[in-house]
């Protein structure tokens, strides 16, 4: 299956992508995770991306598209993938269509996670991310067994720089202006399915799996 997850920051894309990719036996390709790994590794790509990420702005398309092109050319992505955080605007969506066309492929489905803005702010302001493995938790909704310690690997949990309230508000503006138009873009292509992304993580996963069923 070749699938894309779309939804506002904090909709639970990363949380669901990890579970769905494992359920569907396809790799999860998260542009946010790849950028963050490059920032903490101090690579050239990380240096190019950091200032944009800290402000909550999109990293320029040419940088992002080249990175995704390389990732989708890897062997494990040949039989399917779940994209999380890409595409992020209509230009990236058009580039993705072209990339796939060149490989003789196309997208099967785009899953929209719908959640209102106040819930997004609650989720992001309480989010804690593992420095070692990228696992995501929440101080109230998914609290770690030991404060500050990742349930998955025992690494240190920290608060992302872009999870401060004013940056969250800016990321929501960027979503509304640049990313939300993807919903009608993919609706026109006839491959959009939408689910409500409130409720427990397990409830959202169930809805997502039901919506994705038979789409490949
Ligand atoms: P990215 O990492 O993609 O950030 P985002 O889209 O803002 O999404 P988030 O990671 O904030 O949220 P999420 O939907 O994954 O939610 P999560 O599962 O963590 O991008 C970061 C930056 O990188 C961008 O600002 C940009 O600069 C750059 N970038 C990335 N891709 C780019 C692109 N294509 N082009 C240009 N630039 C790009 O959940 C959030 C919290 O809620 C967690 O604490 C979680 O535990 C909790 N939670 C999850 N589900 C539930 C639930 N059902 N109930 C209660 N709590 C829940
Ligand atoms: Zn961890």
From TrEMBL:
Binding positions (ATP): 10-15, 127, 199
Residues that, per the record, bind Zn(2+): 130, 133, 150, 153
Region (LID): 126-163
EC number of the protein: 2.7.4.3
Region (NMP) location: 30-59
Localisation per UniProt entry: Cytoplasm
Keyword Cell inner membrane: no
Matches recorded under InterPro entries: Adenyl_kin_sub, Adenylat/UMP-CMP_kin, Adenylat_kinase_CS, Adenylate_kinase_lid-dom, P-loop_NTPase
Residue span, Adenylate kinase active site lid domain: 127-162
Enzyme class: transferase
Superkingdom of origin organism: Bacteria
Similarity-based family: Belongs to the adenylate kinase family.
Domain characteristics, as noted in the entry: Consists of three domains, a large central CORE domain and two small peripheral domains, NMPbind and LID, which undergo movements during catalysis. The LID domain closes over the site of phosphoryl transfer upon ATP binding. Assembling and dissambling the active center during each catalytic cycle provides an effective means to prevent ATP hydrolysis. Some bacteria have evolved a zinc-coordinating structure that stabilizes the LID domain.
Role: Catalyzes the reversible transfer of the terminal phosphate group between ATP and AMP. Plays an important role in cellular energy homeostasis and in adenine nucleotide metabolism.
PANTHER family tied to this protein: NUCLEOTIDE KINASE
Subunit relationships: Monomer.
Name of the protein described by the UniProt record: Adenylate kinase
Gene: adk
